[in-house]
Amino acid sequence: MELVGSSLRSWLTRPSSEDQTRAYMRQLLDAAKKLHSTRTLHRDIKPENVLVTPGGMLKICDFGCATPMNAAGTPYPKRRVGTMQYCSPEQLMGSKCYGPAVDMWALGCVMAELLTGQPLFEADTEEDLSLIHI
């Protein structure tokens, strides 16, 4: 088993170069492509669920909310899962079916945070957070 240093959340507190940020963004997109090629949705991509190895490789972890996709490419969600700051509008609105776009939305939120050092969406209450997304 590989020892992984820290999460992307702790990396966000450190200064980094544009090149390193771009490399991390590329790795995140590649990881999502590989994950979706296995017909799996993660549904909870966020900085805490991305580990950074000592060599600078990113590893997506915590597949507790993951679900397989059906033939049409969508899961059958029974309830909202994921972390509100990174949930897509369709997840927050209780859509019956959704696909890889929910992970891509979350990746976009993570990438915005990589670039700015701040979460893309912040609010005092879950209701306000939902309204900001939608």
UniProtKB/TrEMBL annotation:
Molecular functions per Gene Ontology: ATP binding; RNA polymerase II CTD heptapeptide repeat kinase activity
Domain of life per record: Eukaryota
Gene3D superfamilies in the record: Transferase(Phosphotransferase) domain 1
Species annotation: Dichanthelium oligosanthes
EC annotation from Swiss-Prot or TrEMBL: 2.7.11.23
Keyword check for Nucleotide-binding: yes
A biological-process GO annotation: regulation of mitotic cell cycle
Keyword check for Nuclease: no
Pfam annotation, one family: Pkinase
Descriptive protein name: [RNA-polymerase]-subunit kinase
Reaction(s) catalysed (UniProt annotation): [DNA-directed RNA polymerase] + ATP = phospho-[DNA-directed RNA polymerase] + ADP + H(+)
Residue ranges constituting the Protein kinase domain according to the UniProt record: 1-134
